[in-house]
Sequence to fold (555 residues):
Amino acid sequence: MNYSVAFRTILYKEIRRFTRIWPQTLLPPAITTALYFLIFGKLIGERIGSVHGVSYMDYIVPGVILMSVISHAYSNVVSSFYSTKFQHHIEELLVAPVPNWVILVGYVCGGIARGVLVGAVVTGVSMLFTHVSVANGWISISVLVLTATLFALAGFINAVFADSFDDISIIPNFVLTPLSYLGGVFYSLAMLPPIWQTIALGNPILYMINAFRYGLIGVSDVDIVLAFEMIAGFILFLSLFSLLLMHKGVGIKN
Amino acid sequence: MKALSIQNLKKTYANGFQALKGVDLEVDSGDFFALLGPNGAGKSTMIGIISSLVTKSSGIVSVFGHDLEKDTNQAKSCIGLVPQEVNFNQFETVKNVVSIQAGYYGIPRKQALAQTEQSLRQMDLWDKRDLVSRRLSGGMKRRLMIARAMVHQPRLLILDEPTAGVDIEIRRAMWQMMQEVNRQGTTIILTTHYLEEAESLCRNIAIINNGEIVEKSAMNSLLQRIHIDHFVLDIAQNLLVAPCIEGYEIELVDSQVLNVAVPKSHGLNRLFQQLSGLGIEVLSLKNKSNRLEQLFIDLVQ
Fold:
């Protein structure tokens, strides 16, 4: 059976959903990141000077872009898939001859699409404040897409387990946002005391932000190969876990 | 060819409740089949398992010869489900609700749009195609769910209380639609609490109670087993007490209205003769309830 039509239908529905409500999905990251660049990059950054040989503004651009990608790839899937559960129209998919992996790939690609689109919007905003250079295009694009994939998968798992709208806001607010802020968006690992440097290395988002920073400005606090291995490992684990949950019907079947 | 074959189907929920206790059921291709049962009897669980919304504990379900477990996608392609509760995306337009469902069944976009139009026209909703679905009336929402279930032209249509909460005019229009769909060759399984609906539409019937099938037969042969009919008589005289006639159970509802239980062995002629002898003139009579209702109550109690 050819599942490409079912996949394209899910993706079309997902992209239509977040583009239809663009004032809620695409506009806020533009405004928030413009404020980041203005306050941290321009006003405070000029007093900080350079980090790893680049201006502070240029240093924070990759982290701010990737932070927006992480947050939007996650929130797109968690809110969309939970809503389909909450309104019961997940049943439209469950009764149809659509295998679990097609449902998963459809929703995750929807999350990637929003993450990448938000990344493009934030990159556009950053170009109002500085010249955005690209040291290695392939590394930049692959880290961006793989990170969006990883967090879209995480959002899917959150939605599967969620029983209320509170459940879909706990992880973004209390886990994702702190880890993103502490993932080296606004500072280099070298700026931290030794003990905090060691603790920070346990934060997976640090590796993603640094890998993306390496792609854009050629500077990183961590080994790029290790960062790619970590992202790939997480994607593999979360994909298999998602499929297992769907196979068992956790959260979606009685 | 059996449209549906169920063997020893069991379902025990995580809390230990055994909703289905080994159900066996077969529905012929082309049939209009009634599945009746009181609330909590196991109807929705059974329909949930057939339509892949509920995971079974054990047993075999086949749809047009396709095992639902081994040949899942072929089996699913044969089924269209109209659930009890509204379960479409209420922020989508009417057209998108149906065309997106067609996409899930692998129908390419151009063909999906053509079949969406056909399905919406059949349910008299084409002129509402661009309306956001939450703005539809209750009856229209029901018809939209039927249109959505029909868009991939299923061979087996499962209607889970499709007329619940809709007014009699719309209900009768929906009966006509269902009969037309069945005439065109689609097998229909109908669950309903309106027993006159089952009696007038369905050719075969199964009654489920406490997770077990307690009756399965042709509707005609089931109705022949009913020995007592209930009638409401409007009479010309004002009565203070119900008349007493041997062989009939008579109850005074109002001074000019009687409820009478008439055994088939006694018939109506004898009743009218006796009433006439008592000086009571009958102005009109009607069935108190449909015949199936009493039988249903007897079977599930």
Chain A has one domain: 4-248.
